[in-house]
Design brief:
This protein is α/β, with parallel strands linked by helices. The chain is about 30% helix and about 25% strand. It has three domains: about 40 residues; about 210 residues, Rossmann fold, CATH 3.40.50.300; about 170 residues, 2-Layer Sandwich (Ribosomal Protein S5, domain 2).
């Protein structure tokens, strides 16, 4: 018997059926029918009312985004000034990275002067209470509940008794009308729809915790990221190093800001000077080069380590930690072709120290110089910082935020900066421009 208010939609062709079957009657694909709440057609027409509307300028003035400031400056920076009332925020990260810890800290900070609700679908109230005690999160306005029912959570949100509600996690809650298991595509989609509607109607800020796949992407349907207003990703090494909170999507602010934390006994603590912390234990040797990279709009100096050793097998090994291995293979091929380095029979290992993951191409020159330094047993002539994008012809290309990178190097006492040529404007102090990788290797590497 078909269930009321439930329909089955083919994920391949979009055909709608009143009952489930293994094969879509329209396109013939197998196992593509997904269970969804039926919010279309006649029920809406009968129960609906005429929309009220206003001129766009009047709405902008009246509904200027009210911010809920967390008092944690780096988080507020990533969000664009705090959580917006009525917004839906998704935070994702690997298991054990610190999502629940961070959100309990945020809830405690906000609960000083406004009611906050933390709903856990993964842990008991006792477990959450133990974490709260460890983090000293004892604000009188902070309430804790446990539930796996999206209907109950939505009803609580709709009452409007809380400024912010945290649901940990969206993969553990389910709608009563959907028969599939929690964490399935249908449950995640419909539960998010239900919670989002309740949050928008009651003007309550909502935070959803999301799981990630083993590849690092957010688990569940891609529509989950489209449904929410803000998507945050907590990255880093779960066993140590820094944790980086970055915005992937933000309807209320920029996605160019990041927050950097370090896990301590009292929870996640903001790192005020990440460059100094990352370089504190550095030992100057061949294969070690300091890179000036950008995390959002913040310059950070990080050590790039390279180890080059003659392979014991027929096929040389390439390993990278903290950077894309395909990019390393491309740069190694370029060095083999454009310089006198012979790397075809060498094992090459690259490590970005401190758990930081580098994605920008400005790291190319530092990686090339680290590989050249390790292959020849040479060190940099000066106490220098390196950055620059490298093309397949070996040319060093321009990168953004040169002034910020140079200023960070100067602040930490470096004597020189090696980077791309400055063709317009005033050349920053300490910067020495190089045209190509071969010139950089010949000019700035020497024996210890």
């Amino acid at each position: 018997m078909a269930k009321k208010n439930v329909q089955y939609v083919c994920s391949s062709c979009g055909a709608v059926s009143s009952s489930w079957s293994g094969k879509c009657y329209s396109c013939g694909e197998w196992n593509t029918l997904q269970e969804e709440l039926d919010v279309t057609s006649e029920s809406i027409a009968k129960s609906g009312h005429r929309l009220s509307y206003n001129n766009v300028s009047g709405v902008a003035k009246r509904d200027t985004a009210k911010r809920i400031v967390t008092k944690m400056s780096d988080i507020d920076l990533v969000l664009g000034g705090g959580f917006v009332a009525g917004s839906v925020n998704l935070i994702a990260g690997e298991p054990g990275i610190g999502k629940s810890t961070l959100l309990l800290q945020v809830a405690s900070a906000l609960a000083v002067d406004q009611p906050i609700l933390y709903v856990s679908g993964e842990e008991s109230s006792h477990q959450v209470g133990l974490r709260a005690e460890r983090l000293k999160a004892k604000a009188k306005n902070l309430s804790i509940a446990t539930s796996n029912s999206a209907d109950d959570i939505a009803a609580t949100i709709a009452e409007g008794g809380f400024s912010l509600v945290i649901v940990d996690s969206i993969q553990t809650v389910s709608c009563q009308a959907i028969s599939s298991a929690p964490g399935s595509v249908s449950q995640i989609t419909n539960s998010t729809h239900l919670l989002t509607t309740a949050a928008k109607q009651s003007n309550t800020a909502l935070i959803l915790v999301g799981h990630v796949t083993k590849e690092g992407s957010i688990a569940g349907p891609k529509i989950l990221e489209h449904l929410v207003d803000v998507v945050l990703q907590l990255e880093g090494d779960r066993y140590g190093g820094f944790k980086v909170l970055r915005g992937i999507k933000n309807r209320y602010g920029s996605t160019n800001e990041v927050a950097i934390f370090e896990m301590q006994d009292i929870g996640l603590v903001t790192v005020k000077n990440p460059s100094a912390a990352l370089l504190a234990e550095r030992q100057v040797s061949d294969g070690s080069v300091v890179l000036a990279t950008m995390e959002g709009s913040r310059p950070i100096l990080v050590e790039v380590q390279a180890l080059v050793n003659k392979t014991s097998y027929g096929y040389p090994k390439r390993t990278a930690s903290g950077i894309d291995l395909n990019r390393i293979n491309l740069l190694v091929a370029m060095l083999e072709r454009r310089t006198k380095l012979h790397l075809a029979d060498q094992d090459i290992f690259i490590n970005i120290v401190g758990g930081i993951r580098i994605t920008e191409p400005a790291a190319d020159l530092a990686i090339c110089m680290a590989i050249g330094s390790a292959a020849k047993g040479l060190q940099l002539k000066q106490n220098a910082v390196v950055f620059g994008e490298v093309g397949l012809s070996g040319e060093v290309r321009h990168v953004p935020f040169i002034e910020k990178r140079v200023a960070e190097a100067k602040k930490l006492g470096f004597e020189a900066v090696i980077g791309p040529m400055v063709r317009t404007g005033k050349k920053p102090e300490l910067l020495t421009g190089v045209k190509n990788v071969r010139d950089a290797l010949n000019q700035f590497l020497e024996k210890d």
